[in-house]
Amino acid sequence: MPEFAHRRTDARIRLLGRDGTPLAGAAVTVAQTRQAFGFGNIGFDFIDPIAGPPPQEIAAATDRGDAEPEDTGAGVDVLADAYLSLFNAVTLPFYWRLFEPVRGVTDAARLRRTAQWFRDRGVRVKGHPLVWHTLAPTWLLDLDDRAVEEAVRERIRTVVAGFAGTVDLWDAINEAVILPAFTAEDNALTRLAQRHGRLGMVRMAFEEARAAGPDARLVLNDFDLSPAYERIIDESLDAGVPIDAIGLQTHMHQGFRGEEEIGDVLDRFARFGLPLQLTETTLVSGDLMPPHIVDLNDYVVDQWPSTPAGEARQADEIVRHYRTAFAHPAVESVTYWGLTDAGAWLGAPAGLVRADGSRKPAYDALHDLIRGQWWTPPESVAADADGVVAVRGFAGTYRVTVDAAGAEDAAGAEDAAGADVELPAGPFVADAVLVEQR
């Protein structure tokens, strides 16, 4: 059995003309255009270049007399090429305090433009997160618990409904395990969670999101991968909470956890029978964070540079991590948390691209996996007497195009055009209409 057999498709595609006639003997080229597996990253770096800075920053710059914003890293064209050459999914930030710093004044327009920019380029868009205690708006603190709850519900409804068709995948609630006990900063969400409990908060997030977006996919996401998280999932599923996927954060600023530990985590959470998303993955290319640090946010240094030795280690570890995830049948996606070192979380050199836009060895190593080893090369084949061609490769979208030379001899293939066909893993039969509809 070939490696990663569960990620592969063994499909038969029937080639049909405009009138439904099989294109017997047609010479076609079959080329993969995207993977079914989600290879994602965050798109935070793209928001300002695509949609402009937030209105409050423009106003502040005007007051200071600044002519234009300062350039802090690689240009969007450089980053876009690096992104689109590797990733087919993106996570955009919907942190409530930044999204709605003043009640009723939101950043929806900029995020919608950015999301559409990615969708126009064939990238799936995820919103992160709908509910989270960190970065909750400070204006919530002035409300009583009843008003806070209504504000949370309204936030979920308006965001999910407002972005329907553009963003249809959401982290519905983030880090529910710690939510009732979070004391690092005063916030109204912790206060509400102490009243409703973890299950009450999870139920609220999912039920409001599902009502506002019946077609959306909703994820429960957490960094705490202990049995406490498993208990929340058990309780939520027993209560009928409509969870579509389980999110597992794997920030590794203190070093790669190893294939055995990652595999054990995946096995434990696979028992729920839901798809697993590795939602937040990082591996640093500099010195590792000391192992005694419990809360990663507590590690603060003036500089945290990328180093040649660290970059070599990062490249090795990213291959090991992605191979472990890709090999597990329950995993549907991996999202790396940072394309570039510029503005990276905690200032860590965890990006795949340096601040100047140059690519690290980890980028090249990941590219070799995603667009090399796990990508089906184009193939020219001839349809049989029934207009059928066989495709064996990795699950995803394939472009089937009638070759110009063969089109003249294929019945019904005049004005031949290409067709995109979605091929899931496993045996599959699909129809491809290769003639333009007029």
Automatic annotation (TrEMBL):
Its EC number is 3.2.1.8. SUPFAM superfamilies: (Trans)glycosidases (SSF51445). InterPro entries: GH, GH10, GH10_dom. Keywords: Carbohydrate metabolism, Glycosidase, Hydrolase, Polysaccharide degradation, Signal, Xylan degradation. Residues 73-369 form the GH10 domain. It comes from the Bacteria. It catalyses: Endohydrolysis of (1->4)-beta-D-xylosidic linkages in xylans. Belongs to the glycosyl hydrolase 10 (cellulase F) family. PANTHER family: BETA-XYLANASE, GLYCOSYL HYDROLASE. This is Beta-xylanase.
